[in-house]
Design brief:
The protein has helices at 20-23, 31-52, 59-76, 80-88, 92-119. The chain is an all-alpha fold. It has one domain (28-119). The chain starts with 19 loop residues before the first helix and ends with a helix.
Length: 121
């Protein structure tokens, strides 16, 4: 009978607290690819919004907003900021029962709101 080592590798990412170390061996975590895809989709969404809504946003502010969004996306998706926040807020039990995914998504939305507000100044 083998003893569990305490290190398990999930078949798929099940919560926002699944670590990069757990996902990397399974080939499920490529931070550069995920961030690049997110940045490209966000740039496309911004271009569509500028065109459809007839907004005047300069190239430099748009580039800065997209850089902010991509950089913070990469940090948030490292999982440790969410885990650290959940520990700080004393919500570790909620994190283990799916709460971390909500905090993760809230962080992403907050970043988008900050970028949108900065672009509309």
């Amino acid at each position: 009978m083998s003893r569990p080592t305490g290190r398990t590798r999930p078949a798929r990412p099940d919560t926002s607290l699944t670590t990069c170390h757990q996902l990397r061996p399974a080939g499920l975590f490529r931070p550069g690819a995920a961030t690049g895809t997110h940045a490209a989709v966000t740039a496309l969404a911004l271009a569509v919004a500028v065109t459809v809504l007839d907004l005047s946003i300069g190239a430099l502010p748009a580039l800065l907003a997209l850089t902010w969004i991509a950089a913070t996306h990469a940090v948030i998706d490292r999982r440790w900021p969410v885990a650290r926040w959940m520990r700080f807020a004393r919500q570790e039990q909620w994190a283990q029962h799916g709460g971390a995914a909500h905090v993760d998504q809230t962080a992403h939305v907050l970043v988008l709101v900050v970028a949108a507000l900065a672009l509309t100044r």
